Amino acid sequence: MPKVENLDHLEWFAAELNSVLQSNPSQKIGLIMFIETAEGLLNIKEICRKARELSDDSFFVPEAIVFGSDDFAADIGATRTKESTELFYARQAVVTAAKAFKLQAIDLVYIDYKDLAGLERQSLEGAGFGFTGKQVIHPGQISTVQQAFTPPTHRIQWASQLIKEFEENQEAGAGAFVFRGQMIDMPTVKQAQNVLQLILKDK
């Protein structure tokens, strides 16, 4: 659903969808909402909450938030750059709201499709921010984005070993513990769980 800006848009969509679908589907339609304007960004928390509420009595279930960067930049009068520093706040707001409501967060598009080095840099940055994935506009971008959003082997090994030792410490009744010279507590354990969760989703 493009350019979701306020709750009225969601309520209209839910009503229209319910009027077309007369019987309960075996599986609800996944709703992907695009945030592409300043108004949409300011209302993103309410939009996510309303989408979840409406899904109880509608034929859709919210699945993801996509950041429409170029429309957003045009809406606020920003100048687009390859570094995307002008969109830093918006990207952080989108990924934070999406994750707060257990939705996938899809990062901005990289429009210079021939610049794979720049695409890789921005993809790794987005993955580091916590985005689930990234929009692409050309088939040649797919493998670069997939690789950037797939945890590297050393990161998977780190996460697997950390979780293993965490579980062993839990069984022994221990709290924080030392792993590879670092003191480990629950926030770090959660990071390791996130890495392994990405691998499970891929499978």
Distance between the termini: 28 Å
Count the DSSP helices: 9
Helix content: 40-55%
The biggest sheet, with number of strands, parallel, antiparallel or mixed sense and barrel status, is: 4 strands, parallel
- Sheet-strand content, in percent, reads 5-15%
Across the major sheet, the strand order is 1-2-3-4
CATH class categorisation of the largest domain: Alpha Beta
Look at the structure and name the CATH superfamily of the largest domain: Phosphoenolpyruvate-binding domains
Q: How many separate domains make up the residues?
A: 2
Name the average pLDDT.
90
Rounded to the nearest angstrom, the radius of gyration is 20 Å
- CATH architecture classification name of the largest domain: Alpha-Beta Barrel
Unreliably modeled segments: none
Please name the CATH topology of the largest domain.
TIM Barrel
Can you write the helix and strand succession as a string?
HEHHEHHEHEHHEEH
Look at the helices and sheets and give the structural class: alpha/beta
Shape: globular
The number of strands is: 6
